[in-house]
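User: Show me a protein chain along with its predicted structure.
Assistant: Here is one chain, sequence first, then structure tokens.
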Amino acid sequence: MRVVILGAKGQLGSDLVEVFRDEGEEVYPFDLDLDITDNRRLLDTICSLSPDLVINSAADVDADRAEVDPDPSIRVNYIGAQNVALACLEADCACAFISSDYVFDGKKNAPYTEMDEPNPQGVYGRAKLAAERYVASLLPRHYIFRTQWLFGKAGKRNFVKSILRNASEKGYLRVVTDEVGCPTATEDLARIIHSVCSSGLYGLYHATNQGICSRYEFARKILEVAGWDDVPVEPIRYAELGLPCPRPPYSPLDNMNLRLRGFSPARHYEEPLRDYVKWLLQNMDLTRG
């Protein structure tokens, strides 16, 4: 399978490149060297490669900035996604789009399935949902993967890195209790995406590791795995942070479509977290007073 991966140096994209290559696929990775908002160049590049699949993992994930200055987020997450879909239409290939739990309002108080009605509350979530609908309406051969709370080796920041960095530098933490979801290792997510995209079973999928927790519980688990149980963690409410973007307070994703189609369930998030924290402690410049 000839596969173009966009956003290939990002947190998920880098693992997609590694996993698809390990599985013997012919991979063409692009990152900032191919701007998905440049419709003509994107179209020419993808058509010249004649891929079987294009995976769009490129995204502007700064949800708070999007509330203050919406255009950059919409340009990448919606217009860019449209451009990718149009290029796939022209190249006559399948398209995989990476979406988010932010398409939900988090008020259901139970895990969301693919059949639940989205209701995004912020610019980032609205752009992702609009992109989902555009891809699905334009391309019969599409895969849409909603996921959340990613952690992986690539990229400058994620929740796990922030917890360890802040614990190291400040010696204490303040973490919200009213934001609940499913932590997800990018390596595991990349393997799910490969399995689904190799199957030809097109459609919408929720894709996460197993296990549900609050941000506070996740932070405590990170510290426990690191052997830093003595770091004080103050439980707070999300409103105390004063951030512009409204997060869905309870948005675990039920991987119903994966389960009912017979795909193997992902691991519980604690398993990859242990290896990941060990790797971070070896590779991040962290000191404790």
